[in-house]
Design a protein that fits this description.
Layout (H helix, E strand, L loop, with lengths): L1 H43 L10 H13 L3 H11 L12 E9 L10 H11 L2 H11 L7 E11 L1
Length: 155
Amino acid sequence: MTALLLASSITPPVVSQTLVALIKRDHLISQLAEARSEFETLATRRVRGDDPRLENFWDDAHEISRDHEWCEVYDRIVEAMRGPERYQESDYDVTVTVSLLIDVPYTVRATSADSARDVAYDSFETADAIEYMRSYGNTAYNNVRDIDIQEVEVD
């Protein structure tokens, strides 16, 4: 009876641990089968030229074609394989047209604040802003509130 009592008290934890180990093993076997299947697919599947894993390959191929003046051949291969187009960085001169928002102190003679506003609208010219910026140099730039790019033209 003591042996039976002893066996029954040991058995549930052992069975429980064995079941957990079997479940883990079955899960690992399943994961391994999935990994093997994915590997077979990747190993036999044709890789397209635009696959991100080929980025370093295309960079090296571009550099070699440029160094050996094979750019036309490279371009044909890229087109056939759907790879990235050849790039070539160059310096370009551009003209940037900006709109500058700046506070310019300006004095007008008027009879009221409203009329001072009107006089300023009528009399203030671009030359006044330029003169202010020239006269006050770097301190004028402290009054710049905004710069908007209006247009960029390649020269």
